[in-house]
Hints:
Helix content is 43%, strand content 24%. By secondary structure, it is of the alpha+beta class. Strands 1, 6, 7, 8, 9, 10, 11, 12, 13 and 14 form a ten-stranded antiparallel sheet that branches. Strands 3-2-4-5 form a four-stranded parallel sheet, with helices on both faces. A hairpin with a 2-residue loop joins strand 9 and strand 10. It is elongated.
Amino acid sequence: MVSLDSRLFDAVAKRHWPGADRVLPRLSQGANHGVLWFAAAAGITATRTPRARRAAVRGVASLALASATINTLGKRSVRRARPLLDTVPLIRQLKRQPITTSFPSGHAASAAAFATGVALESRAWGAAVAPLAAAVAVSRVYTGAHFPSDVLVGGALGAGAAFAVRGLVPTRAQLAPPGRPRVTAPALPGGAGLVLVANAGAGTSQRVKALHDALPEAEVVVAEPADLVAELEKAAARARVLGVCGGDGTVNAAATVALQHGLPLAVLPGGTLNHFAYDLGVEDARDLSGAVEAGDAVAVDVGRFTACDGAGAGEQVEKYFLNTFSLGVYPELVRLREHWAKRIGGKPASVLAAWKVLRSDERPMVGKFRGKERALWLLFAGNCTYHRPGFTPGRRLDLADGLLDVRVVHGGRRPGTRLLAAALTGSEVRSPAQAAVRLPRLRVDGLGTDTAVAYDGEVTRIQGTLTVDKLPEALTVYRPLSPIR
């Protein structure tokens, strides 16, 4: 084996590859300390798609595990000397020769770990990264830094690290399929019969163009925020399927219209968070177009709340939500976020609004639960069960479980401390500061005039008795039923 390894090393050293003398040594040095892969991860993340972000994070996590394993165990277990450079042309040799032991190759391990980790989350990005990883691995033999067996074993260990990470943190494709019921929906070849209304204020132009390329027969209407509901109503009058592109608030408006007209809904994410679309498994135009042409759809629950109008007129208000409903400090957070978002962007505005709310010294609101008056800082009701602890909405595996995911932060001193404790400890921890329960219906009496509530990022005012419940499997929505790419 040693003789074969040496012969292979000498064969590579004697072979000249056009252009490789300049490229491979630089590429090998660029991969020192994982710099090349961190840059690749940043580039992948810059595409700003959820699948790309997950792929980049998984690639970096796999690299970290591989690097830690190689440097703490691998190189200490087999103390193999580096190859002699007598047969390697000087132009190929690294400016700084490595001083650690040769077996296994840390660079090859990092390259394989990153590429495999990325591929496990996104085959397309994995295919893009794989040639670069292979070139780095080859460069370690070409520059004389390693024997071929060092590179082969290092690559195998790196790939193994990526699979180990997947064992600890499953990929999206590995998660249990959602228990949503599949329903019959029109299959629209080329998108004929789909009328999609896009919110012009959400910056949806690129996503709409991608959808139009995928479904050239679909009709697309770009509406200003003030005209959104009117355009949705017009679209519903002539559509076989109502489509929408925008954030969660825009999708909420479209879902309300779709419910009233008995139409299936096609959702293309186009906002900042896009919780509902992502929980459906729709992340881009390819996902949606494939589902629309195949007629792949499911029935999902719709949350509903009813109360008296907060303006004092006494009129009954009934509204729907697809993601979350809340009262207490969260509506104020939403108001502040929307106020600052146009100036500094959505994510910085969310952080600033949360900081402002946590520092607030306002008194908690008061409501009656089963006839007993209670003070509370926050009441959160999710449409179906969220699978991330705390009060930050996470992913839902099932959008038709018939339940409200209710979480409460009780009133008391130091609201910021209580809210942070609730977010960090999770929904399963019961304490005097918080409680969590899942139930199909919730009622709160005695709400004061002009009580603010938030639903899917929108804010309205109510008073009196509040009822929150579900419309089980009330809305038909397109979603891809084939495996995630």
